[in-house]
Design goal:
Layout lengths: L3 H6 L3 H9 L5 H9 L3 H16 L2 E5 L1 E5 L28 H12 L7 E5 L8 H14 L5 E3 L2 H11 L3 H11 L1 E4 L9 H7 L6 H13 L3 E8 L5 H18 L2 E8 L18 H15 L5 E2 L3 H4 L1 H7 L6 E4 L6 H4 L10 H10 L3 E5 L19
Parallel strand pairs: 1-9, 1-10, 2-3, 3-4, 4-5, 5-6, 6-7, 7-8
Helix pairs in contact: 3-11, 3-12, 4-12, 5-6, 6-8, 7-8, 7-10, 10-11
């Protein structure tokens, strides 16, 4: 599959040799992989790394995603989820009881959640104490349920509201029950482009610093990149290299999630070359390059909500090893135009993995595998 002569003809001999030897690729290597005309050659290299790390395993989690509000002060131009105030059409804000009711509904079934995922907009009026109360109440309902919540962008927002450091925010949230962070809000790290896309959001430097602080406090995190908008391949490679550098320093990223930009309900106008069916090939290439460059981040997620089921299945052959999970109620991607289902059953996820040629492995929020015998019947829908 990794024929030396063919990779030489593509100008990728040194990259192939590095991959086979388990050596780190350079920024220039990343650019070459994005420029390679044969994405299957790039995908084969990524698949080699994926199998070296995880064999035929493909991971999923039984989780419940809760988006607590879409009211947000940041005003990002690309965001179809955001509303400026609670009076605006389509705005919502869940109460503490709304959130707990969703957990009680899950507890009323034989299904056991392995992750609670809480994330939302930067609401101007919700204090940090409200979120601490929500985490403590959720932990009281199910003390064994790992809580994954809040992006570095939300952490910085809480810090500004309270007039305290981001480290203190993280310390307080950890004491209330936070064990992991989902890693959203990174968008793209190029500051000139961020000034056009998300001028009021935490800077790339702040995003990386807060992630590092979380790692130092023992809070694991994921990391993300929003791609397929106005960025260039060089900006993508820079973003991935900066994530890799932060991982070298703090070591707490468990999974990278490439998030394709969904155009349907965005106020951001894209050039013609960023539209059309070729986006699917670009998505697969980006997954593959991420797997090849991020040698120190163990997992790459094919987020089926935003990729769609078929594309997520294909991405498992392009370096991805995780599909996320049952989810149940996702709003951010769907308000941006995602056409995937709101959630999946365990059986649907496992069938999706097996039909792709891989072995399903159920995991928890921190990617620890859960023995199959401990899992409930795959017939159960949360």
């Amino acid at each position: 599959m990794l024929d030396a002569a063919y990779y030489a003809a593509l100008g990728l001999s040194s990259i192939r040799d590095k991959v086979l030897a388990g050596e780190r690729l350079s920024y220039e290597d990343g650019l070459a992989l994005f420029a390679c005309p044969d994405i299957t050659a790039v995908g084969a290299l990524a698949h080699h790394v994926r199998c070296r790390l995880h064999g035929d395993a493909a991971f999923y989690v039984v989780n419940r995603q809760i988006n607590y509000t879409n009211v947000c002060v940041n005003g990002c131009t690309f965001c179809a989820f955001r509303r400026d105030s609670e009076d605006q059409e389509g705005a919502f804000r869940l109460s503490r009881e709304d959130i707990l009711d969703r957990l009680r509904a899950a507890d009323a079934t034989p299904l056991h959640l392995d992750e609670l995922h809480i994330v939302g907009g930067c609401h101007p009026d919700l204090p940090l104490s409200w979120f601490e109360d929500v985490l403590r109440a959720a932990r009281a309902l199910d003390p064994s349920l790992p809580i994954k919540a809040f992006t570095p962008v939300e952490i910085e927002h809480f810090s500004r509201q309270e007039g305290i450091s981001t480290r203190e925010v993280l310390t307080r949230l950890k004491a209330a029950g936070l064990v992991m962070m989902p890693g959203g809000g990174a968008e793209i790290f190029n500051e000139e482009l961020r000034a056009r896309l998300c001028p009021h959001k935490a800077t790339s430097e702040a995003w990386l610093r807060i992630s590092g602080e979380a790692h130092e406090l023992g809070i694991l995190t994921n990391c993300t990149m929003l791609f397929g908008h106005l960025e260039t391949p060089a900006m993508r490679v820079d973003h991935l290299c900066r994530l890799r550098e932060q991982q070298d320093k703090s070591g707490g990223f468990t999974c990278f999630i490439p998030l394709p930009f969904l155009t349907r309900n965005s106020r951001l106008t894209l050039p013609e070359e960023k539209l059309g069916p070729q986006r699917g090939l670009d998505e697969l290439r980006t997954v593959a390059v991420a797997r090849l460059l991020l040698d120190n981040i163990p997992h790459i997620k094919a987020y089926w909500i935003m990729l769609g089921v078929k594309q997520a299945q294909t991405a498992l052959w392009y370096g991805a090893d995780d599909l996320d999970g049952t989810i149940i109620e996702e709003r951010i991607g769907h308000m941006a135009g995602a056409t995937s289902a709101q959630g999946m059953t365990i059986r649907e996820l496992e069938d999706m993995i097996r039909q792709s040629g891989f072995r399903p492995v159920r995991r928890n929020a921190t990617f620890a595998a859960i023995p199959t015998a401990a899992a409930p019947s795959p017939e159960v829908r949360s």
